Please model this.
Amino acid sequence: MNVRVRYAPSPTGLQHIGGVRTALFNYFFAKSQGGRFILRIEDTDQTRFSPESLQDIYDTFDWLGIREDEGPRNGGDFGPYIQSERLEKYRIAAEHLVKEGQAYHCFCSPERLETVRQEQVKAKSSNQGYDRACRNLSPDEIEKKHAQGMSSVIRLKVPLEGETSFSDVVLGTVVRKNSDVNPDPVILKSDGYPTYHLANVIDDHEMAITHIMRAQEWIPSGPLHVILYKAFGWTPPIYAHLPMVMGSDGQKLSKRHGSTSLVDFRKQGYLPEAIINYISLLGWSFDSEREFFSRQELETLFYIEGLQKSPAVFDYKKLRWFNGHYIRNLTDSMLSVAILPSLVDSGLVSSTPSKSEVEIIEQSLPLARERLVLLNEAPEVIGFLFKEELDYETSALVPKGLNEQQTREVLGKIANEIDNLLNGSPEDAEAWFHETAEKEGRKLGQLMMPARIAITGTKASPPLIPSIRLLGREKSVTRLEQAQAKLAPIGD
RNA sequence: GUCUCCUUCGUCUAGUGGUUAGGACACCGGGUUUUCAUCCCGGCAACAGGGGUUCGAGCCCCCUAGGAGAUGCCA
Model:
């Protein structure tokens, strides 16, 4: 079979975890099967459409490194790929169904519908939904209402009896009584636009889609769509309903739980590699051992049987862990490119970095790499290399067991030693600290910590000696002196 | 309210009638280490409950409970 799958987002908001996972799974399935991945824009809700959302879809794809084989950007033989450009097809199809007696015009006002709905809820009625008031309007009545200029929608005539089933790759066969299917949903709105149900069925058929992979929230619509396919005399594609992505409280993942949009993750310094790897493991697994997958590997390894039935909880901590892992795997040049924006944004480095800035960044990479979980943390990890002024509490300088004066002496001693610390080997420098500590009956930390605070401004920092070397003689001495000045003067 | 789907460690999962129920994150402890990290080692921790079927059930069937989703002129 020539696999053709699609991702069909509606441009009404930013791309989020759930949607992206659907896109990825479709993409991976297509690639692994040698099939085609189609991007279709479902902009049938004119009130919620936004151009930024459309752009965000493309940006997200680009950032993740996935590319559609067919879509609005690169065309294809089945276009147009934007539903608002296919209006005529839907209208004709809907009218065709009306003519065939499989759909009908409905003149109910939104207000009436709302009243009906409220009454049903209040009465805890067992069948909620449209009451099919217009289902059996006579041709005369319909004509009369049209003549009066009443606007109408077209509703699908869902069979009152019997049942409808579809086969699903992950769920098996799903059967539903027709009486339980959404009672006569609108397929063509009064503004002439189709609803999702109509547009998606027509497009999937016309675009020769072979498999529909979408989230499980669509299961209830499955039978409805099958009824639509039958009404047109078409064969439905194969379904694969993906388990939903939940928040930590078991509810559908939403902003309440934290960041969900891909731009957010991107801004926070997540790598696309980490996102792809982690997201792919939400509701899918390869085997019991393997957990690292590149995009390229997934393009061949993905298999539909690895799909899970039960919902998956999105675990921010595990995503972070993946991100740290991928950061550690970055080459120096990739890492320096990756952290530059955060350094620029925080004002530490000029937007067109000077040669010396670039040099410092590059040399700091070995120190930064294993301390970063998010790219955005770069400023706090290596920011001291670029700052003019350090900001810390004087009390932080003083280690346990020493008073201010002793601390000042320690700092002075280190300042005096600076040339040797810089010129000798790092091992020699380290040895000096050990020897000095021993000679003076002090703990190593009592020498290192004051210096660390003085040099980096924080007690959690990259290793001291390399940090001093990176900072350079002049700044190091200055900082050690500034630190001494902060402490109580001699004779105090 | 009705319908549908789901149910293995806290989380993601492996498991397809016979396993000490495996791995990963998180957490806890230890080691390496100048702090923080990284890295290494170890530990804690699960088959929702109840009935069957079977010589034998996490795996098959039924019921119960719990969770989620749908129920729009939104997708």
